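Inputs:
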Amino acid sequence: MNNAAGSPNKELYLRELTDKVIPFWEKNCTDREYGGYFNSLDRDGSVYDTEKFMWIQWRTVWMFSELYLKLRKNERWLEMAACGYEFLTRYGKDEQGRYYFALARDGSPSMAPYSVFSDCFAVMGAAAYYRACGREDARQEALSAFQSYLDREDRPKGEWTKELSGRKPMKNLGFYMMKANLAAVLEECLGDSSYRREMREAIDTVMNEFRHPEYGIVFENVGLDGNFDLSSMIGRQLNPGHAIEAMWFIMSAADRMGDRGLVERAADVVLAELKFGWDKEYGGIYYFMDVLGKPHVELQWNMKLWWVHCEALVATAMAYKLTGRQDFKEWFEKIHAWTWSRYPDPEYGEWFAYLDRFGNITHTLKGGKWKCFFHLPRMLLVCSQLLEG
Amino acid sequence: MNNAAGSPNKELYLRELTDKVIPFWEKNCTDREYGGYFNSLDRDGSVYDTEKFMWIQWRTVWMFSELYLKLRKNERWLEMAACGYEFLTRYGKDEQGRYYFALARDGSPSMAPYSVFSDCFAVMGAAAYYRACGREDARQEALSAFQSYLDREDRPKGEWTKELSGRKPMKNLGFYMMKANLAAVLEECLGDSSYRREMREAIDTVMNEFRHPEYGIVFENVGLDGNFDLSSMIGRQLNPGHAIEAMWFIMSAADRMGDRGLVERAADVVLAELKFGWDKEYGGIYYFMDVLGKPHVELQWNMKLWWVHCEALVATAMAYKLTGRQDFKEWFEKIHAWTWSRYPDPEYGEWFAYLDRFGNITHTLKGGKWKCFFHLPRMLLVCSQLLEG
């Protein structure tokens, strides 16, 4: 454990973003030869794999555009966003308009378009890029990717679906939390509020169907009929970080819509998640849990992931700002201290991704198949705004 | 850590099998209502999920048949094998004759037949069951499942394959090590030596293409052309337990064929794997590694799994018996001490499955999606035979 944890204030968050995180990616991630980004970056920024995973690539387009929009009109960031945008719109889609899961370094398709979240992050990336540079093709890209996302609701994995009739048909939290988030992003970036209905429907689904009335927490999977299934591993699965992330999306949307009741209900879930998901012995928030405490199918269930703690910082800072409840201030400070003393890399900047239950670093990577220029810089940006004053 | 580790002798291994492991499964695993087995069993044997995963189901058929054949003609074990055999042959296959990945408790298909190893374990289970009871339909089942396995060599995941043209085409160790093992099982159980050619080819592939000439260890994935790819995560991936398991299959086959040179070469690999995969700080063998020590894509790479240590006990005991080299005796004793002091459950019998890097138990399960009545009882049976005298 290092002692990077200063007192949680706007300056600390902003300085980490501008001095430690952005420079790491500016320096290491652009593939100037083929376009797109190198993302499998080791501790020192060296590239250990060149495959281009779609979630990751579009998230990077989004983040550079977002920084340009919200932090500073730095033309370099716009160029870096363009470097991904051009590459991905040129090579990224199959003949049905679905984004592949991954491309080879040169843009040839390497993994089939089995994940609806490839389309999801294309919506975010293209929408923010449109807002940053005003290119009409980017606006169209965001809209067509959103349509592809919506079209895939009934069968998100398409022909790669493995679940058959003997499995109770279930829906997954991720689809609905991102549907709400995408509608909000389109409203913000395209100035188009015609997705309010989709946003409201998705929020209602999360709060009324995925939130368990007794536990007060949000499940990962519920029956298509909205019923909970406590008899199966899948039905009992929890991902507290995921639920907490969904709650700040919802608090933020509710705040814009002026729905104070919804802000309070989402904030209640954040609190319930933290009470359920916090490791009372070693601190930090578990990755996966079983609601009844039965064995978890995921081997890494008790690991402590950077993104979970980033999302919890955003959610508690936002809940405190919007509700004024003291609980959230205390939780924010507790999570801040735990997180900032473990994840930042004092030597090469940026943050480590994976800790074991006890807080030991298990991987040296700064970017990989799942970690990229996204959760950490977004958290630093949003928290620096929330900590204002 | 408990102190179950006695001195490694035949009696200890046999007593653990007959007094602690077999009774746990005899008592808890049979589904008398629908047929097949309950396999998601918590520490005390209670059922925490009822889905029936195909690998697991057929491995259980194999193990009960094997015990009947090699330990004692206990009719109850034959009945328990029949309980799976009847259920799986009735419900297990799709219209193309491929085994589903999973069935619901009542036998309806729940997961698509995307894994060639479902067919693989059907070969083992049906062949051993045939040898135990002589039913002609079981012999036919073993042969047709083996044909299905061979037919799937070029595209083991069938229409669920996600890899596209941008990925360097690779082959996976698992397919070839199991091809060699299945040919050996068919020879042993059906008395049919017509698969010698397939066995020899598969062994040559493992030893000549997957074994790296400089490292002396076996890789998980190599190019279709047999070339190593040290520039990608997939190409650098190692799974020492897998490689060690492959080596005792090969030593055993080589011994039967009278090929002493091959015995020695496979034994050399076991030694190289142990030197590479043993955790010098905390003991035990890592689950996944990167040959260049770069970040591993699997979060759980540094965990210590029961099956890895079971396979290492078999491999070192066998290598010592066949080569007489003192190294293997020392390694066997070292692995024995580490394993027996951590995995056995002193309270409910059977062994725990998953430990973190430091040797702490992370899951209470005795059976799950991947652990079943297979690696542990097979190891206890084989080691008790190898430790004879």
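The first helix of chain A runs from residue 10 to 28. Flag for discussion at group meeting.
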